[in-house]
Amino acid sequence: MTALIFYPLSWIGKTLPQGRERLRREGGMLLVMNHVSHLDPPVDAVFVHRQGRVPRFLAKESLFNTPVFKHMIGGAGSIPVTRRSSGASESLHHANDALREGKLVVIYPEGTITKDPTGWPMRARTGVARIALDNDVPVIPAARWGTNHIFDGYTKKFRPFPRKKVHIKVGEPVDLSAYRGQPITTDLLREVTDLLMVQVRDLLAEIRQEQAPEEFFVPGRKRAD
């Protein structure tokens, strides 16, 4: 059911992948991506599926209460994420289980589509760092750009025509060996999270062929010029 719906949705744009060979065909893997449109999940899911993997998304809990969609993401093994402290811990537990079972988990560390007015990644939540450090699996950064030109989640403008290009670029695994074995502190989680998102941001800069901002956008805070 998910494939029947996600594949046609992904065809709205022409996906142009780079570095897809870095997604190995088996074994646990954490794929860390930016988030620019509500079209990202179906596009990313089809991209991963074409590499011979079934993606398990960390998705907002509210989506699991949506008619029809809850069966799609639930049946595909997606993991509900809640911001409640007890629920957040359970989400991390399920993500760890999936990785240890050799599955590929996709995470959007920003938690929602970016609020940066120019589309760059905003300051991410640190759950991605905890998952990455808790599991000895490849942590792969990737960036995607173009879905936001088809559907803008904030203006609600849907522009499928003319058909847009959607670029996905997969980077090299991030070396986290210097952080493994250290006491888990708030500062450590923030440092690792920013390290991962810098990799994602740099890949996005390569796709856009633009200079990325040095600081991550924080909603409600004016970015320095």
From TrEMBL:
Keyword Oxidoreductase tagged: no
One GO CC annotation: plasma membrane
GO molecular function, one term: 1-acylglycerol-3-phosphate O-acyltransferase activity
Segment forming the signal sequence: none
Pfam families cross-referenced by the UniProt entry: Acyltransferase
The entry's keywords: Acyltransferase, Transferase
Annotated Phospholipid/glycerol acyltransferase domain residues: 29-147
UniProt key word Acyltransferase: yes
CDD domains on file: LPLAT_AGPAT-like
Biological processes per GO annotation: phosphatidic acid biosynthetic process
Protein name: 1-acyl-sn-glycerol-3-phosphate acyltransferase
